[in-house]
Specification:
The protein has about 450 residues and is an alpha+beta fold. The protein contains 15 helices and 15 strands. It binds glutamic acid (GLU) and magnesium ion. The site of glutamic acid has 11 residues, from loops.
Length: about 450
């Protein structure tokens, strides 16, 4: 239910909030925002603030590509409106409240480039089939000292998954735990990850739109807590060629009422959902892991999901099926997409995932046998015999995969697809004649 905006504004003013930051993610997964004084909230909630329509064609370096003809000139404005139901005062920034934004056309009608609306359409399409989805994000990131050292200095030295690693950044960890709760984020868990500097935080499963909103809010919360302790975070998929990649894995389950269709091994409908994801995996990955950094992260043997297959609890699989059990309950069953990272727009990612899975269910696709080892260690003949191929590793191949999937392109819609591809080409063009390490260094702090 939408809160009464006048009452909400008064409550924010009473608690000392001065401004509301309205945030969305662009087609590079980069958060963008506008901040308005709190007194303007009632009017802004009604008509929004003006922002350029060109944000849809910003590339990862903030260059604007005019290659998408519908947004081919500097003219045009859209309205950015805060989603009041999701507005939260920020624990780490007491003068600010935060809300995810919706983008509307200048006349207040729908704007086809609004990524949040793309996801809402998929949620509605699932609902029309009598289905709901639950989505949880696992977010890996690197924690570094906030100075200009190059290479940046890791704020913890490991060991991997060790409490000893986190002792070095204890005050930061404490604030993350407190601020996430205060900002309404339910955490799954938090730990030191694989390499020096790396950590992981998981968000509890929610409805898809909330999951994408929360993923943005979690970044804001984490960054602010880090800054307070002299730390700097990288969410980039591969901060440098020498360090561990940061996956932002997406866990989904599909439900009919209170029945989790991913439970039971999975059952036939859950299997068809996974089969739909598997069929469209190259196209889905072009949305969920779309940047130059994403492509560099997809190295075989690094648990990032480099080959197209599914497995049961197989950590090298881009689609890792996690069964429920009598011990954990059937609600626990889900499928994890590992080929996903912070350079994806979370709304578009979840829309692509749900569209692919829903189509699999609608067509009652058959799921092949799971693969329980790492096909990267097999011979090319063995992979071919099982129909397993590497996922695209260039922007060009990703574009071909994406445009070959009517399910995923329909989910995005022709306008957004055009802008998205123009941005990908712009990024690829800028990276073409540069060393990979230089490209990765430029993306390191952007997400
Ligand atoms: N860091 C790995 C990645 O790039 C994932 C490791 C894990 O499975 O947690 O996705
Ligand atoms: Mg992990």
């Amino acid at each position: 239910m939408t809160p009464d905006v006048h009452r909400l504004t008064a409550a924010l003013q009473d608690s000392g909030v001065a401004g509301v930051t309205i945030s969305w993610a662009d087609n590079n997964g980069i958060p963008r925002s506008r901040t308005v004084p709190v007194a303007a909230l009632p009017r802004v909630a009604e008509v929004g603030v003006g922002v350029t329509s060109l944000f849809a064609v910003f590339d990862s370096a903030d260059a604007i590509t005019f290659a998408h003809s519908d947004l081919g000139t500097p003219s045009g404005d859209v309205r950015l409106l805060p989603v009041l139901e999701k507005l939260v005062p920020l624990a780490g920034q007491p003068a600010l409240a935060w809300a995810p934004g919706r983008q509307l056309a200048a006349d207040g009608g729908p704007w086809p480039y609004d990524q949040r609306a793309v996801l809402e359409r998929q949620v509605d399409a699932l609902a029309a089939d009598g289905l709901t989805a639950l989505v949880g994000y696992e977010m890996e990131f690197g924690v570094y000292l906030d100075d200009d050292a190059e290479p940046p200095a890791p704020a913890h030295a490991g060991p991997a998954y060790s409490p000893h690693a986190l002792v070095a950044i204890d005050d930061f960890v404490t604030d993350v735990l407190r601020d996430c709760v205060a900002n309404g984020l339910e955490l799954g868990q938090l730990h030191a990850e694989y390499g020096p500097a790396q950590m992981e935080l998981s968000l509890a499963a929610t409805d898809p739109v909330t999951a994408a909103d929360n993923q943005l809010l979690a970044r804001q919360t984490l960054r602010v807590a880090a800054k307070r302790h002299g730390l700097r975070l990288t969410f980039a998929p591969l901060p440098a060629t020498t360090v561990a990649g940061n996956g932002w894995h997406i866990h989904t389950s599909v439900w009919r009422g209170d029945e989790n269709l991913l439970a039971g091994g999975p059952g036939p409908e859950g299997a068809a959902y996974i089969a739909g994801l598997l069929r469209d995996l190259p196209a889905v990955a072009a949305v969920t892991a779309p940047s130059q950094g994403s492509l560099a992260r997809l190295r075989p043997g690094y648990f990032a999901g480099a080959y197209g297959f599914w497995g049961v609890e197989n950590r090298e699989a881009p689609l890792r099926y996690v069964p429920g059990s009598a011990f954990l309950g059937s609600g626990n069953a889900n499928v994890e997409l590992k080929t996903s990272d912070a350079s994806a727009n979370p709304y578009l990612s979840l829309a692509a995932v749900l569209a692919a899975g829903r189509a699999g269910m609608a067509e009652q696709l058959e799921l092949p046998e799971p693969v329980q080892s790492d096909p990267g260690t097999w011979s090319a003949e063995d992979r071919a015999a099982r129909g397993i191929a590497a996922l695209p590793t260039t922007a060009e191949d990703q574009e071909a995969a994406l445009t070959a999937s009517p399910r995923v392109t329909d989910a995005l819609g022709p306008e957004l697809l055009g802008a998205f591809l123009a941005v990908r080409r712009s990024d690829a063009g800028s990276a073409a004649h540069r060393e990979l390490d230089a490209v990765l260094a430029d993306l390191r702090w952007r997400y």
